[in-house]
Amino acid sequence: MKWISDLIDLIFPRRCAVCGEVLSRQERYICLNCLYTLPKIEAHHKIDIEQTFWGKVDIERATSFMYYRKGSPYNALMHKLKYNDSPEVGTYIAEMAAKELLESDFFNGITRIVPLPLSKSKQRKRGYNQSEYIAKGLSNVTGIPIDTRLMVRDIPNETQTHKNRDERWENVKDIFSVTTPYTLNNEHILLVDDILTTGATLCSCATTMRTWYNCKVSIFTLAYTYNGF
Ligand SMILES: [Zn+2]
Q1: For the segment 20-38, what is each residue's pLDDT rounded down to a tens digit?
Q2: How many angstroms separate the Cα of 208 from the Cα of each of 45, 54, 123, 212?
Q3: pTM of the complete model
Q4: φ/ψ (deg, to 5) at 105
Q5: If 0-12 CB within 10 Å is exposed, 13-18 middle and 19+ buried, where does residue 132 land?
């Protein structure tokens, strides 16, 4: 059946999600050139990511894989993941991230991976939750199970764009709840989202999880908004 996939490739060539060049048979989603210059988070910024949560919610560890910067061609990856109906690219990048993180103690003790839930109406509109595709990539590499039924997001996602910093935090306070009959006692949850900006929504979700006895929370996001270059 190889000739069929060759023919499909010829008519609808697969293209790099970043630069748009036609991909070779060995390449998946991203061409080798773009992969080589993928804007991975530099070591000295890893602490900034953890600092986002300091004084807001007690977490074990937090990390991101790549930068999300104004004007970067790599933002196309996040766009594809969220809006272009190609969420598989998120799984692909998350697998790459997980392989690198396996060399550290990041995954030690984590019992479940939980994608940050979307509200029901938003998920219906988009057709999927992009964070689930990221969670899938992490789970494929680590073998840690994903739990998508654990949390619900109670109120519709109101757009955050025109709100100031304080309003954003107030807007997402107490919007998550744990679905019964689950208990998070003694669990260590890895909470997963696509892009870390203010961290307000992640904090809200982690705070709810932390109300359970000895429930630890770590955070992974695929990208981290940074415009300080
Ligand atoms: Zn490319």
Answers
A1: 999 998 899 999 999 999 9
A2: 27, 16, 21, 8
A3: 0.90
A4: -95, 15
A5: buried
Q: Give 174 Cα–ligand 1 centroid separation in angstroms.
A: 41
The pLDDT tens digits for 177-203 are: 877 666 788 999 999 999 999 999 999
Indicate the residue type of 38. Answer: L
CATH architecture of the region 39-225: 3-Layer(aba) Sandwich (3.40)
Ligand 1 midpoint to CA 64 (Å):
22
Query: Ligand 1: distance of its center to the CA of 2 in Å?
Result: 25
Could you tell me the two tokens for 146?
């994903």
108 Cα to the center of ligand 1, angstroms: 34
Question: Quick one: 197 exposed, middle or buried, by C-beta within 10 A (0-12, 13-18, 19+)?
Answer: middle
